[in-house]
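Sequence in, structure out.
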Amino acid sequence: MSLNEDCSSTDDIRSDEPLSHAQTVWFNQPLLLERGGQLPKIRCCYETWGTLNADASNAILVCHAVSGDSHAARHNANDQPGWWDGLIGPGMSIDTNQFFVVCPNVLGGCRGTTGPGDLRAEDDLELATSPNQPIPGVSINSDERSPLEAMSRQGGGDERPYGADFPRITIGDMVEVQRRLADHLGIVKWRAIVGGSLGGHQALQWVSRYPNCTHTCIAIATSPRLTSQALGFDVIARNAIQTDPHFHGGQYYDRPNRPVTGLAIARMLGHITYLSVAAMEAKFDPDRHDPRHIASDFEQRFSVGSYLAHQGQKFTTRFDANSYITLSMAMDLFDLGGNRLKLMETFDECTCDFLLVSFSSDWLFPPAQSREIVNALTALDKRVTYAEITSDAGHDAFLIARDMATYGPLVQERLRSSDTHRGVNLSAGDAVSKGQSPVQLTVAEESILEIIPAGSSVLDLGCGCGELLAAIRDRHAGTPMRLMGVEVAQENILSTAMRGLDVIDYDLNNGLPAFIDDQFDVVVLNATLQAVDNVVALLEEMLRVGKKAIISFPNFAYRALREDYVTRGRSPRAVGEFDFDWHDTPNRRFPTIADVHDLLIEMGVTIDREIYWDVSQARHIDADDDPNLNADTAVLEIHRS
């Protein structure tokens, strides 16, 4: 399937149809707003899937993005599409046979929850105004018709919609409304809080504000704050709306024309930021000079023009311009910290485990921003798994079916069992039942396993499929051990996570800046030394992060390899670790036992234990039996005094 055929976002097919499964609850207690002022009364619109269990322990909160709403997934075959149909439902990654899923429309939105299109009474104005920030508040419209229907009518008497006078809100204010919803539903602690983009901001705000609010936080395609570039796009979008001649200072609801042109332009601009260069080329380049003509005043000279015109105009039928301004401003104000120290302060008290997912081509919420969060969580020794999904789709990837199929299993594994949130890792038997192959260790890994004592905290660099970490856990079952992997191959990250282990997506050639000094008892580098760029720097980092380090590596001075090179004139190649053609080998170095010994002495490193094998002959080689000649594999335990 081509990228063009496979990169349609679920947001593109949303409509303005009534949300037939939406529920509404009113909160009569005033909501004090972070930026000043208050809303005297709040309406919250939400949808649910599944059944809440007796102790309310299976509830998952799903948070939506700017243009989303409460309709995250279909409720039945006849229901309209949801924006996360590929993730939520019976037997899906967020399994509604097992979990009770709740998705509320955000405060400030226009799909049922209190927002700028609601009516206010003039006698509420003083109540809702802060003396430090003269932003008028809101009185709530009790009209139960669709939000756009309610917005389009003129209120009787002194009532009129807030419009641009709606108070400036924050993501923290959105979370406070969701907290009230949780209280209303009898949910003391969420099983998980899940969200993408703005939804990810809400998830992160939840756990930073209420550290014990959930067992698991899943933040997808998000960030601790917007980049200056993203802020710039939002500024342009708001200017497009506010300079529309039909904006009328935000009070356009009783007028024959609304600021649809400005809102459509804002949406068109947003669409461009959601797509990558590759996605736009795939969508529009094949017929760039053959646009699809639609009824529109917008330019349609190119295929991309007709697409943007269609999406922009369609968006105006289901969204309110003032809500777009309100929600984009809330995103722009969101700021959990611009450096690791600040982020560590933000998440220091969190008790949940984390899953973060980013996408390689997302330039609106770039992977580097997710890594900032991961680095802070790692330094705090929080349970965290992180994957950067390879995708050409850009920011929209979190709403695209093929990418949901890639990251969905990571979400499913984080939610897999009631034991996971208590820090109990997946057992060997469970791993096999989930489609993982039984743990099969190499001779070097068996030797490493024998070295590591029970109760140790272990960081495995280049952990592969997580087999060594799983074997360590299973060997010392019942003994609490902090186990974590670092890997860069996407399929290996998934395999490790499916074993119930924490793993982060990180390139070892960049060192280990995510980790603090002496964070682990043991740092392992298994069969990877010959493949890294900067051997000395990585060894230094291992000895900084770990109290001890264990390295295993192929010995390229092994007898058979010497004969290959000297006698037969061929690049060293043998069974097992060395079985690569010269032109596609992953080996960047060709270390020998003697070379590594010399390097460690030069670095002032002490070798505590030496284990040598002739794997091809299934024979242990003693340290005094010339292992540089007779061993093909070395395992060294080292430390720096």
